[in-house]
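Working notes for the structural subgroup meeting. M.R. asked for a predicted model of this chain before we commit to crystallization trials. I am recording the input and output together here so anyone reviewing the notebook later can reproduce the run.

Input as submitted:
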Amino acid sequence: MFTYLYLGTNDLERAIRFYDAAMGVLGHRRCVTGDPEWDRISAGWGTYKNGGIEELALWVGKPFNQQPATVGNGSMGACRATSWQQVDDFHAAAIANGGTSEGAPGLRPQYNPDFYAAYVRDPDGNKLAVVCRGFTVR
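Returned structure, recorded in token form:
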């Protein structure tokens, strides 16, 4: 459904440190666009190939309108984890790198019996979830 998600930041270097750690736990590495102007104002994790023809990425950067970045009330992006351990590690990496917890790792049976998730806010206040479906061991 999506090709990318773009979140605003007021401090790109701080955001890069946060997302390098948190997205790295999920196996996502930094995208390289080859466009120096774009790479100066934003950073992405996931897949970016053939000039963006093949793209599935989370981007963070300065808002295009040059206004301060703000969070959306009720907005949240969710990333897929392949194990409960990845959920635990994502949450720990996010907190260790300037994020705040919005819900510790654990089962959320109100959504589904196998819905294991954690919720965080990045240093700019953007809300993220990481979810593993399926009963897995740590």
